[in-house]
Amino acid sequence: MARLILFNKPFGVLSQFTDRGSETVRATLSDYIAAKGVYPAGRLDRDSEGLLLLCDDGRLQARISDPKFKLPKTYLVQVEGDPLEQDLEPLRRGVRLKDGMTLPADVRRIDAPDLWPRNPPIRERKSVPDCWLKITLREGRNRQVRRMTAAVGLPTLRLVRWSIGDWEVAGIAPGAFEETSA
Hints:
By secondary structure, the chain is an alpha+beta fold. It is built from 3 helices and 11 strands. It has helices at about 60-65, 85-95, 145-150, and strands at about 5-10, 40, 50-55, 75-80, 95, 100, 105-110, 130-135, 155-165, 165-170, 175-180. Strand 5 and strand 6 (about 100) form a beta hairpin. The longest helix is centred in the middle third of the chain and has 9 residues, at about 85-95. About 30% of the residues are buried.
């Protein structure tokens, strides 16, 4: 049985165990997880939060992170703007980015989710509306959600990965993890 860790990665933490070569000290997974022999299955940007899976099985790690398996990844995304349904259509069809067209995404507006406070908090501007989207992708390009929302005029303010396949971060506090078997 493969060992699987569901980690709620806080904002500002690197998705790796070491930070060699940086002039400034940055938080890494080793600040939160002392388990030996587990490695991240995919990445989550330093300025993103939420579910990061770690495992000790190379095949499982590949199945989770390799885009060819098209494992759905769902994000709760706070964007700047107040889009209408037609404004979200390009995301549903696929967006042209510098590295090519994205696959279509499942996108819908949602009420503001009941999430943990982010540290530091999101800058709020009274004159600029924002809203929350639930976006599910089946590929994993570098900073893809942020690039997609920016391409349609909805810059991302906060990005929380909520689930990968059937695994989700619900009930796991930021910086905490749960261990299971896969």
